[in-house]
TrEMBL record:
One of its GO terms (biological process) is phosphorelay signal transduction system. The lineage of its organism: Bacteria, Pseudomonadati, Pseudomonadota, Gammaproteobacteria, Oceanospirillales. The modification 4-aspartylphosphate is found at residue 78. Keywords: ATP-binding, Nucleotide-binding, Phosphoprotein. PANTHER family: PROTEIN TRANSPORT PROTEIN HOFB HOMOLOG, TYPE II SECRETION SYSTEM PROTEIN GSPE-RELATED. The keyword Cell inner membrane does not apply. Belongs to the GSP E family. It holds the Pfam family T2SSE. GO terms for cellular component: plasma membrane. GO terms for molecular function: ATP binding; ATP hydrolysis activity. Residues 29-144 form the Response regulatory domain. The keyword Cell membrane does not apply. This is Response regulator. It comes from Vreelandella nanhaiensis.
């Protein structure tokens, strides 16, 4: 791994020992195109320390002129330029210099940019402005690595062209063009739609024939399939037991390909090749073999066992299996094809064949993968794909706020949604009912789970994707932004031997982060700790962490009871969701366990009302509750572009009297390359309520939730608005952000 990118930056000519792969004679040459001289200067600073030769152009016309005189390995172009835009420029580059790699830079990924980027081979990838320097350098390094791999592949292909046929076409085999047999079995009632979709997925992954997967799953009787093919495909049946293989035919179709595809060349007659096939309806394979060999393929139906026996007589099984695997994995890597995607059925205007075909179109695959990868790059917590009247909007939730980033033509909506359903193993033909699913995305340094929700709307299905980091490192209490008084209160609560601590708030308010921070603070080898969540979102080294699977396995309440039987000192529950779980949690707290859990609620009164709704008894709450923390996550003002601003009279009136202190200074972010519209990161706003004897007596007497909240205020609890005012004094948040989160409370004040 240490030398993986070395050749991109240093001269390694002395280390190249291969006579077929000569080393480069000069550094890689990059052409940077942008009509803004400031952008070109910034790009120069990004790459000035790399061993690249840099060329610059301020227009597409100038760039094409430079390319005619100085061949380059990679072009980085802006999109919006006077005259010829970046998409048109890169289109010309693709036609005139197909070996040159292309990267698009754009400040807003509109329809033209996205579609230009998604076309097969048009653009290696696109980066949004403002870019991250390290990310852009890595993108270029990866692109040049691809360039070098392709260069070496071309050299090796030229050397071996005299001895082997071109197998590149095999890498482009499309499963949607090979499923005639699968669809025939579906029409005959021998396969259901989910089985078809599974076959479609695995055929895309390994390019093996459908019958090989049917044999693995034992879904249909293979003799029945053979009879059906004999009656339906209208081709001759051949008995291979009487055939002697001509060794010269292996030069036309290699051993490995025969093993992989279950085929056997029998004889040539002029420009015709007779080919024994277990699936003569595989027209996709027949077309590819015809282009590869230059022969007209005549398919002949043969028995599966006979073709396997005949190949086994001629070839060494071990060597051929290795060769077949190498061929199956021989396609070039594409950064947008690196996420595995998967799918399912209901009545719809399109047939199952059309839906499968559209989901496999390169624009749909690359567009969906690009949407996901861009969300991960920007650090988004959610993706929303929302069909509107004239286009499909793709929005990312960054720091708790949605930002429109991409617009997709309505014509691509069905294929994009179908592709997402394939990824999440959902019903591809069902459009009238909501659906839920999940995919896991594995990257070199992280694993994320994507929770998929589809909701039918008047314009089509709306897709919401929640991005969940798998086993991310939990933050410490110091990193959560707790004030000194709130920190003291939380430490007092977490050091109690038993009881319940509740973190409450709206969705995406950092409730679970608070609990894991508390858990890490008290974790030690002396305490037995168990966590239950779906899925496990944070890693706790000294805790026994249990994932609650919604689809299979025991439910939440059963796992909780099993966990209690192991005698934990501390148990963390993802959320009090049902009456059964709530009752078990209070029972555990009353019997000597310390229970940490979250609850949906925007205030102390809302939390008490929710607990009553979940069936918690007044005496149990009075005895078990130790602390309730209400919290929000406020966007932090970007420190790079922060500026002081006056508070308008309208803002002062809405914020309330707490913010009328003349010594208060108010800040906002102008917006820069480091932030999103003046904000970068988030900080917590907290309201911590410790349950004292006065509150316990009021709870036991059945006092209303609103009276309990008023009583807490009388006890001197620091409110969310108080904490927001302190964060504003520190210059961490802006008045607009406080109004966005807490305006109703400010009006009360």
């Amino acid at each position: 791994m240490e030398k993986r990118y070395t050749a991109l930056f240093v001269d390694t000519a002395d280390e190249d020992k291969s006579p077929l792969l000569p080393s480069r004679k000069r550094p890689y040459r990059l052409l940077l195109v942008d009509d803004d001289p400031g952008i070109l200067a910034a790009l120069r600073r990004v790459f000035q320390r790399e061993n690249y030769e840099l060329l610059f152009a301020q227009s597409a016309k100038e760039a094409l002129s430079l390319l005619e005189n100085s061949p380059v390995e990679l072009v980085v172009s802006d999109f919006k330029m006077p005259g010829m835009n970046g998409g048109e420029l890169l289109g010309h580059v693709r036609e005139l210099w197909p070996e040159t790699l292309r990267i698009m830079l754009t400040g807003y990924a509109n329809t033209e940019v996205v579609m230009g980027s998604m076309k097969e081979g048009a653009v290696y990838r696109f980066n949004l402005k403002p870019w991250d320097d390290d990310d852009l350098r890595l993108t270029v390094a990866l692109a040049l690595e691809q360039y070098e791999l392709r260069r070496q592949s071309r050299i090796l292909a030229q050397e071996s062209a005299k001895h082997a046929i071109n197998l590149e076409l095999l890498n482009n085999l499309d499963a949607s063009k090979r499923n005639r047999l699968v669809m025939l079995l579906h029409r005959k009632g021998l396969l259901n739609a989910r089985q078809i979709q599974h076959l479609h997925k695995v055929m895309q992954a390994d390019r093996a024939p459908a019958l090989s997967h049917l044999l693995q799953h034992d879904w249909v009787d293979l003799q029945t399939v053979h009879i059906l093919l004999r009656d339906e495909c209208l081709c001759d049946d051949v008995d291979l037991r009487e055939i002697r293989v001509d060794p010269s035919l292996w030069a036309i179709i290699p051993y490995a390909l025969c093993i992989q595809q279950w085929i056997l060349p029998l004889r040539t007659v002029g420009r015709r090749l007779d080919l024994a096939m277990v699936d003569p309806m595989d027209t996709g394979l027949i077309d590819v073999l015809g282009r590869m060999t230059g022969y007209d393929i005549r398919p002949l139906l043969c028995d599966i066992g006979q073709v396997q026996d005949k190949l086994a007589e001629t070839l060494d099984k071990t060597e051929l299996h290795a060769a077949g695997q190498a061929m199956a994995n021989g396609s070039e890597d594409d950064p947008y094809d690196g996420i595995e995607l998967v799918f399912d059925e209901e009545e719809s205007p399109e047939s199952l064949e059309q839906l499968l075909g559209s989901s496999a179109d390169p624009p749909a695959i690359r567009l969906v993968n690009a949407i996901i990868l861009e969300a991960l790059r920007l650090g988004a917590s959610a993706i929303h794909i929302h069909p509107r009247a004239h286009h499909v909007a793709v929005s990312y939730r960054i720091d708790g706020v949605l930002h429109d980033k991409i617009q997709i033509p309505l014509a691509l909506m069905i294929s994009v949604v179908s592709r997402i359903k394939i990824m999440a193993e959902l019903d591809i033909t069902q459009r009238r009912h909501p659906q839920n699913g999940r995919i896991t995305v594995k990257m070199p340094m992280r694993i994320v789970d994507l929770d998929i929700t589809l909701l039918p709307t008047i314009h089509g299905e709306k897709v919401a994707i929640q991005i969940l980091e798998r086993q991310a490192a939990a933050r410490s209490l110091d990193e959560l932004g707790l004030s000194s008084c709130n920190t003291i209160a939380m430490l007092h609560a977490i050091n109690q031997p038993q009881g319940i601590i509740l973190a409450a708030g709206l969705a995406d308010s950092g409730k679970l982060s608070m609990l894991y921070a508390l858990l890490n603070h008290i974790s030690s080898a002396e305490k037995h700790t168990i966590t239950l969540d779906n899925p496990v979102k944070y890693y706790a080294d000294q805790a026994g962490q249990v994932t609650v699977n919604k689809r299979s396995g025991p439910d939440f309440a059963s796992l909780f009871q099993a966990a209690l039987q192991q005698g934990p000192d501390v148990i963390l529950l993802g959320e009090l969701r049902t009456k059964e779980v709530s009752a078990a949690a209070f029972e555990a707290a009353l019997s000597g366990h310390l229970v940490l859990s979250t609850l949906r609620g925007h205030s102390i009164a809302a939390v008490m009302a929710r607990l009553a709704e979940l069936g918690a008894r007044s005496l149990a709450m009075a005895s078990a509750l130790q602390a309730i923390v209400i919290q929000r996550l406020a966007r932090k003002v970007c420190p790079h572009c922060r500026e002081e601003v006056p508070l308008s009279p309208e803002q002062a009136e809405r914020l309330g009297k707490e913010f009328l202190d003349p010594q208060l200074r108010f800040f906002r972010g102008r917006g820069c390359r480091y932030c999103q519209q003046g904000y970068k990161g988030r900080v917590g706003l907290h309201e911590v309520l410790l349950i004292n004897d006065t509150l316990r007596e009021a709870i036991a007497q059945g006092t209303s939730p609103w009276r309990l909240e008023a009583l807490a205020r009388e006890q001197g609890v620091s409110t969310l608005l108080d904490d927001a005012c302190e964060k504003l004094r520190q210059g961490l948040v802006s008045p607009d952000e406080i109004l966005r989160l807490l305006s109703p409370q400010g009006l009360k004040g």
